[in-house]
Design a protein that fits this description.
The structure holds two protein chains of two kinds. By secondary structure, chain A is mainly beta. Chain A is built from no helices and twelve strands. Helices cover about 0% and strands about 45% of the residues of chain B. The chains are: A mainly beta, B mainly beta. The interface between A and B is medium-sized, with 23 and 23 residues.
Chain lengths: ~110, ~110
């Protein structure tokens, strides 16, 4: 079965420290990979995506993610966390086969402490 | 420019009633998606429209759920004979195309079935 896993329900990090939010996937074919963020009382927003090319992609708000095909992972990273980064983060996979479905992970809540 | 809009923002209904949720996608976006997000959980894919192609209805949880889209514009999600387990936030998203394009989300409709 095709799936996306975000193994951590919650990640806690101190402001100024680097952060990592993990995502692994299990799909057939070549996936397109996305990260979305949901701030409190705001809608889901696109952060970044990997389609092809350079395995390290950069996105909004200083976030970046690294595609690792051998480990089927797409971890989200930021060198220096801000309190304002506290939000719910979703990893998503879009599969380029005859049919379509975007599969979202369950989400990881990030808490950044001042 | 205008984003994805959804109406109503909140809907409280009695068990057994029908409800209709509306989504206005971003102009020019050919793809439109509906998701359900239960409290504290991830996004559950419901249905996907792409241009004039037949919609992908594989995520609809039961035959009480249906959705329509007129061309590349407004979509309505209808839930008949609502049940308490239908209580959730229903999110609509649109994108420029299919695989590889990021989705832009509306603010959601919070449905409460009493």
């Amino acid at each position: 079965a095709q799936s996306v896993a975000q193994p951590e329900d919650q990640v806690n990090v101190a402001e100024g420290n680097p952060l990592t939010v993990k995502c692994t996937y299990s799909v057939s074919g070549n996936p397109y990979l996305f990260w979305y963020v949901q701030y409190p009382n705001r809608g889901l927003q696109f952060l970044l995506k990997y389609i092809t090319g350079d395995n390290l992609v950069k996105g909004s708000y200083g976030f970046e993610a690294e595609f690792n095909k051998s480990q089927t992972s797409f971890h989200l990273k930021k060198p220096s966390a801000l309190v304002s980064d506290s939000a719910l983060y979703f990893c998503a996979v879009s599969i380029n086969t005859g049919g379509f479905k975007t599969i979202f992970g369950a989400g990881t809540r990030l808490f950044v402490k001042a | 420019g205008a984003g994805v809009s959804q109406s109503p923002s909140n809907k409280v209904t009695e068990k057994g009633k029908d409800v209709e949720l509306r989504c206005d996608p971003i102009s020019g976006h050919t793809a439109l998606y509906w998701y359900r997000q239960r409290l504290g959980q991830g996004l559950e894919f419901l249905i996907y429209f792409q241009g004039n192609s037949a919609p992908d209805k594989s995520g609809l949880p039961s035959d009480r759920f249906s959705a329509e889209r007129t061309g590349e514009s407004v979509s309505t999600l209808t839930i008949q004979r609502t049940q308490q387990e239908d209580s959730a936030v229903y999110l609509c998203a649109s994108s420029l195309g299919r695989d590889g394009y990021e989705q832009y989300f509306g603010p959601g409709t919070r449905l409460t079935v009493t």
